[in-house]
Batch of 4 targets.
Target 1
Amino acid sequence: MKEKDLRESLVARCRDLEKFGLNQGTAGNLSIRLDDTMLITPSAVPYDQLVPEMIASMPLNGEYGAWTGPLPPSSEWRIHLDILKVRSDVGALIHTHSLYATTLSMLRKPILAVHYMIAAFGGPTIRCTDYAPFGTKELSDLALAGLEDRMGVLLGSHGMIVLGTTLDEAMWRAVELETLAKMFYLASSIGTPAILDDEEIARIVERFKTYGYKPPKERAGRKPPKEKSALRVKTKARAG
């Protein structure tokens, strides 16, 4: 995608986060890889006022923390930059203060394998880090450790981070992580939820290589069921 398109997609996903109830006000931040640079949302701009020209650009190599743009990058730029520098499998990051994920982070509770969709994050848990002040290298280091072999993490008393090869994939994971956090919270408030074992989650992780979110081009390649097959099923049902 061209830089113009990536900037527009960042603005659109910011507004989607509010539409889906995953963020509010000026909280949270998003970034996306563009060759050897990172495009990242600016600091302290409400999403309904954000326009593509406000997105900051930061080099992935070179002077650490350098940026260009009309506004400074998000105060959490270290998390985004440090992750993109060491995780070649990541093309985009989303950080939000969504309600249930943040609630669990305040309790320092990792999300356990109470539902198979946790496999979308690469393992049987979504870890929760200790607390560190926002915008610090300490917080970035905690995030990196919590994201080892994972695509999502809870930041202690703060919120969530999700990763994706694309921004749309990261958005899908943001929705799924908040849903898992809500289900885990609700189930735990009623009783003790059953935990799927590590072997089962490992099997589901493998299945997710051909399941789950797929970009539009891949979805377009999937053939719908043949009409004849559906017709035969209906015919047999009537005959029975």
Target 2
Amino acid sequence: MFTDLETTFEYLCARLEHVSPRAELYLQSERIVAIERLKKERNAVVLGHNYMEPALYQTVCDFKGDSLQLARLSAETDADVIVFCGVRFMAETAKILNPTKTVLVPSERAGCSLAASITAQDVRDLRARYPGVPVVTYVNTYADVKAESDICCTSSNALKVIESLNCDRILFLPDEYFARNVARASSKEFIIATRDPASLLKKEDSIEKVLIGWPGKCEVHERFTVDDILGVRKQFPDVIILAHPECSPEVVMASNFSGSTSEMIRFVKEQEAANYLLLTECSMADNIIAENPEKDLLRLCSIRCPHMAQITLEMTQKALELNRYAIEVPEDIRLRAKRAIDRMLEIR
């Protein structure tokens, strides 16, 4: 579809003229056509997370979705090259599932504050402190952390994962807010571990069913507040507010709906309301508007993920042209991390 420059330009204008000026869209159209040519030459596919910029998300991505959807899709592709338009831990997951394929992430600076909040040694220390307690690790972690885990989860299947374990005590790492929200949904008490082994021992001993978290946070979602919600509702009393579960429990409880990025997209498509506001990375609202022009999303978001913003059409084109930046995962880590990811993918 995007092999002809003029057709591509017309498509972008129809969908994204409310977001970008026409001159920028023409330049983006040239990049899109070049990427489509390179994909064909290299037998490559592009996976795009829901947070990608609209011009990229709406065109060159062969598969789009949240972390769970993209993990499943990356395990099924027969392409030789996977370009993962998302942050590094997502590309690592694709490499873990596809060790013989070339996996590229368009920017080496596409990190994640949450993934950086915990190390493999932290997990080993927690296991020593809580012997026999299963470790559930959010996919927003790096490969060596996944390798120390029993099972992974995403924002769309976390509750199913912890319920599948049928355990009174679970280590749930590393997002504190997400863990608090899951604990509330699962009727488990929540405590937060620290690097101090003696910090919570007495309290832990007195709790029968507990989810043990870690003080990691997403630098985007932790910035949303209840005051933000109250301020919007003063101006727009009928607004439907959707919060990602990486937001604080107070924000989630003050919202109308909380779910993964794909669950948010589905919610907006299926509901009829005057106004919606998404408390998550801003680009996703642009993508929902492009695909649902009849919907009214409030343009109040000013919070961009600095890591997701590193992934652009220009960087995606360069990744394919120069075969950069290739993801590598040591085989011993890959095999152990794959076991945790496979266990997650088995849960439907």
Target 3
Amino acid sequence: MNGDCLITVEPQVSPQIAMAPRNSRQLPPYRLASRAAHPRSTVIKVGEALIGGPKFVVIAGPCSVESEYQLVSTAKAVKESGAAILRGGAFKPRTSPYSFQGLEEEGLKLLARAREVTGLPVVTEVMDSGDIPLIARHADIVQVGARNIQNFSLLKKLGKVNKPILLKRGLMTTLDEFLMSAEYILAAGNGDVILCERGIRTFETATRNTLDLSAVPVLKERTHLPVIVDPSHAVGKARYVGPLCRAALAVGADGIMVEVHCNPSEALCDGEQSLTPRRFRELMDELSALAHLIQRES
């Protein structure tokens, strides 16, 4: 060695690894999301709803916020039928730049107005990390859409937000990749993550996407985080939404997110997959009957 000294350098341990359990070598890479590390199921309280608890939670509302009348009338209708949380997009990611992109901040104010009128907590999507403070001021749950599932810088910033995060599975995302995305939020400090299966891309063209209901029992086995299902975005056709909502309940999901619009034929976004308030009320009755048969609360 020509007299050179050997210097041993201690590796730096990140805070995320330091907070992992001591038996982390036996855990999957999504250490904090793993049921092996956290055997008890996580229950997230939003308003009066307990997501991940014994009751099947229904989130409902329009794909996008279009006007005060449209949003408030739909919010009243879904609450009367038994929905626990109101959904509505203020910032809308669209494939075409010429499609309706949402009302943005005005849409957030309308969501806050609908919450004031109905008492329903609201969930809406964030697309840009710069909008996180604005959205967090108005929303009770912050949604990450399928397009941003691996936007890791956004996920890390949402880990610092004191609001539950609803994380949607991407079109081409494996379940391990899905859980690793959740891990980014957990590792940054936010333990309130809700996983949402919303369909994956396959060779099938009869529906918009293919709803992967098998993801529900697999995720419930692997992670303590609550799991919900979004059939509306999966199939893209309102006539298929009801059967898949019932299937989500039967397969063990913690809840569903359904698109409802007071006038789907006039909707500016995803009208074809939106239920009318009347059909939503019928669906809620169907879910109640099914929940009774399988001894589940609804």
Target 4
Amino acid sequence: MTSTFRTLTVPLDGNASAGGLPQFLVRDDVLCWTRREAGLVGFGEITRFTATGPERFLEADIWWRHLVLEADITDSLVLPGTGPVAFGSFAFSKKSTHESRLIVPEIVVGVRDGQYWLTQLTFDDGELTEAGALAALDRWLGGGSGGAAVAVAGGTPGEVRTGAGDAVVRPLPLAAGATLHTGSLSEEDWMAAVTAGVAEIRTGALEKLVLARDIVATVPSGVNASKVLRELAGRYRECWTYAVDGLVGATPEMLIQVEGRTAQARVLAGTLDRRDAHVEDGIPMDYAERVLGGSEKQRHEHEIAIQSLTSQLAPFSEAMNAHDEPFILELPNVWHLASDVKAELTEVEGHVPTCLALINALHPTAAVCGTPTQVAGALIRKLEHLDRGPYAGPVGWLDAAGNGEWGIALRGAVIEDPHTVRLYAGCGIVDGSQPEAELAETWAKFRPMLESLGISS
């Protein structure tokens, strides 16, 4: 690449953008990371990096650091997310054929603490100006959804079975003409996989296992990805709404957030469907505290997830703290047991670790894989009959200064073509897990995407 990578970041008038970032979610091919009206939205693409295999995080890290090393950066704000930025999505499994990716957009709109900015990124030799950046943004916003074209997240992690074996998973009132089908495993087969997982746990081979399943929605009227993102951003304000190359969702779980030398994570394990609460149960949050917080099974699952993250993060930290007791995270569909972890990063071999180096050490956590990791990973491949693709993998962004936010791609789906969406959900399996209850939990976790697609669950 002979041309110089150049970026210009300028303040953007916040008064004209009172709706926050969600108002910029107007295209189906948008790149997105937003929470509570703040975050980043990207348009276009000037370059990308792809990789597969166990070294995908480190290879992406090297590529990004080389790209920004000699970049010509004009940035009057110097905030996390200004200057050069790449959006990323990584495969869950080191054995997956799905391509992990970093994408550098042409235009980024950012919001942080009420401050709006606009960044233009290019390899062209022409002069970068504020007027030119604003004109480029107007072109992208004026293009609407770009017709029926939808960015697709690189292949189909699982195939839809057709014919007599392709049963509609349950009778739902669906969006106009939509159909809903099983993915890699039927409900009965998946519950059998849960039973097999519990049996393995009882042998002492592992302590926890996370099993996922997929369903496929076909929407003849077409999938409006921008509308899905706006619905998620509006309804799930405590989650991080994401979109990278057809991977869309709203995750409640932060794998790692890095600002300077401070790293933070939000760990979730333990779930209670809000539909299970009834008026006679009293105040909903009291019910959640009693049933979820008082469950030995749920608290055990949560403790495994916390220990998994803190033990992996410890070598990179000079100080770390976490909640002594998990708190109840209230979302529109479920309650979770949650804990926030904060660490001050230390230098490793003379350098503060980058967010991708941290991800390489942290992923996969017990919250999405199990423990011990190697045993759980092998059992997942045996029981799920599913390439998770980007589901439960890291998704987020990073900048040239080493800052970044990376969630775990949960409560999401892959838009496989303009009419087909594959949804994923998983559950933590421990000794006390019951297959029917775990199946019901997957339906609670499918609900955000089903509702955002206009499919009532």
